[in-house]
Amino acid sequence: MGKKKKGPKLPKKIKWEQDADIHQRKFVNVYEVQCAKVSSIPCPWLMAIMKKAIEERFYVRKFIIEAEDDNDTGEPPAPQIRLDPVINAIRKSHFIYVYELAAWNFELEHQTVANLALLIEKGIYPITGIELMDCSLLYYSVERLARSFRFSSLTEVNLDYNEFGDEGCVKLCGGCKNNKTIVSLSLCYCALTYRSGLPLGEVAFHSTIREFFLDGNRLECQGVMDMTRAIAVAAEDDNARRIEEERLKALMMAEGALQATDKNMTSQMGTEASGASGGDGAEKSDGAEKPKKKKKKKGKKKKKEPDPPVVGPFIYKLHLADNG
């Protein structure tokens, strides 16, 4: 008999996420109320994706809020899309299911940035990525945002097209130092000059950031040299420290081996003496049957979780296009 032909594979059914429609309907209601309070309109993209998510019962993990183009027709200005109602709605509805927050083409005031920083600092909101592209951020707003990095779960930060310059870069690097979660930093077209090279190099050593996107600035050769020189010096210091640690470890192991041989010799002498006096008891004990050990059932091996990023002078990506 011939083999039966297998039919086409059916697509796997998407599992519904429990209570996704309830939580997101609550968020939409609160978001509309917050928009009405500040005379703004809800973001069309966010409302559309929320409607679809409620119908199909899945969580929207990334919020994208984009400002509309300015009205140049001479008509009275219409209500604009704002970021504050989104942040307030997340907090008031306790919506803890969003992982990424992106805002494009806004003119963010310092109060809005401070409100976002307070949201990031809250441990209950697992936000891992923020994008504030072309949002007219000033250096003091960048400083407030960077202060929240110590208490956050962020892994990616994108501040492209914000011309806060070297002063803003220094403030940002101050918040990135000693950070244990961020692995990617994008500062494309931020009006950086060679003065930003040294602080960026220090961040590369004193944090877990492994990917730098610095296209479209004015770092020039001097800024890139300062950045790489700081990384090279830090790498040499780190290597010297590791060599010293290995040397001390070898000495400790050698001392431990000498102590172990002394203990073995003394224990052997004690067992020989006890064996001579109690030989009959040993023969009896040899004749006794040993209890059988029960075999353990083999279970599935658990997958190892990836190791957390390590602080040190390690760079995987460095983008420097169009830097003079």
Using only C-alpha atoms, the radius of gyration works out to 31 Å
Query: What is the number of strand segments?
Result: 7
First-last Cα distance = 73 Å
Topology as a string of helices (H) and strands (E):
HHEHEHEHEHEHEHHE
Brief overview:
The chain has 324 residues and is α/β, with parallel strands linked by helices. Helices cover 46% and strands 8% of the residues. The chain has 9 helices and 7 strands; from the N terminus they run H-H-E-H-E-H-E-H-E-H-E-H-E-H-H-E.
Mind explaining what this structure looks like?
This protein is of the alpha/beta class and 324 residues long. The protein contains nine helices and seven strands, in the order ααβαβαβαβαβαβααβ. Helix 3 runs parallel beside helix 4 (110-121), helix 4 packs parallel to helix 5 (139-147) and helix 7 (197-206) runs parallel beside helix 8 (220-277). Residues 7-14 and 281-285 have low confidence and may be disordered.
